[in-house]
Specification:
The chain has helices at 4-14, 20-38, 76-85, 132-143, 158-170, 199-204; strands at residues 44-50, 55-61, 67-72, 90-91, 93-98, 105-111, 120-124, 127-128, 148-156, 175-182, 185-186, 192-193. It has 208 residues and is α/β, with parallel strands linked by helices. The protein has one domain (4-204): Rossmann fold. Strands 3, 4, 5, 6, 7, 8, 9 and 10 form an eight-stranded mixed sheet that branches. Strands 1-2 form a two-stranded antiparallel ribbon. Strands 11-12 form a two-stranded antiparallel sheet. Helix 4 (132-143) links the parallel strand 8 (127-128) and strand 9 (148-156). Helix 1 packs antiparallel against helix 2 and helix 2 (20-38) packs across helix 3. The longest helix has 19 residues, at 20-38. The chain binds 1-O-pyrophosphono-5-O-phosphono-alpha-D-ribofuranose (PRP) and uracil (URA).
Length: 208
């Protein structure tokens, strides 16, 4: 997303001097800005209302309700900012942790509606590195019938974008990706450079 406010906040977010409380606020601000772009295609319906002056026709978010899916842990930091903008949304959860040796994700939690056909799904994860976690989550949603998936990430690597694109094309999944930045590359440990380090740790502290 090419916008001066996004660029400004992203720079503060990347800065290693930014402490946890400010980091969390910046993540929330950024997802609010990105949600504007990500929800351009959200389904709406016409509604009749009455203002103090006259009856009129307006717009409201349509049923079935959109589903927002943060990928735990770091995606949780984006949840509040997103549902503030999409207040009718329901929330499903997927917990994934990347093995730091193999860089492959394992799924340790999953709480999603069984049937997602006809639902618009919005996946939240601040970091798209190798793309393994995001592709895994997209696979979960598609296996439950989701056909309309939008992923919102803050920082991405070209390698991760290529992986997700290849995966979704191969499986004929309609998926849109909205990112605040595409960085240079992944390092030998699968971290995005320049990136911002470990998003989960910067939001919630170190886990052994
Ligand atoms: C981070 C991040 C993504 C994933 C990206 O989560 O939040 O989910 O890594 O890497 P990938 O594109 O190579 O899969 P992590 O597994 O570190 O867990 P955490 O959110 O609990 O810190
Ligand atoms: N996960 C993160 O939190 N940061 C990275 O740079 C890569 C994966």
């Amino acid at each position: 997303m090419d916008h001066p406010l996004v660029a400004h906040k992203l720079t503060e977010l990347r800065d290693s001097r930014t402490q946890e409380p400010t980091f969390r606020l910046l993540v929330a601000d950024l997802v609010t800005l990105l949600s504007y772009e990500a929800t351009r295609i959200v389904r709406v319906e016409e509604v009749s209302i009455r203002t103090p002056m006259a009856p009129t026709t307006g717009t409201r978010l349509a049923e079935p309700k959109p589903l927002v899916v943060p990928i735990l842990r770091a995606g949780l930091g984006m949840l509040e900012g997103m549902i503030r903008m999409v207040p009718t949304a329901e929330v499903g959860f997927v917990g994934m942790a990347r093995d730091e040796e193999t860089l492959r994700p394992t799924t340790y939690a999953e709480r999603l509606p069984k049937n997602l056909s006809g639902r618009q799904c919005f996946v939240l994860d601040p970091m798209l590195a190798t793309g393994g976690s995001l592709a895994g989550c997209i696979e979960f949603l598609a296996s439950r019938g989701a056909e309309d998936i939008t992923c919102v990430c803050l920082i991405s690597a070209p390698e991760g974008i290529a992986h997700v694109r290849e995966f979704t094309e191969q499986h004929h999944i309609d998926c849109t990706l909205v990112v605040a930045a595409v960085d240079d590359h992944l390092d030998e440990h699968g971290y995005i450079v320049p990136g911002l380090g470990d998003a989960g740790d910067r939001l919630y502290g170190l886990i052994d």
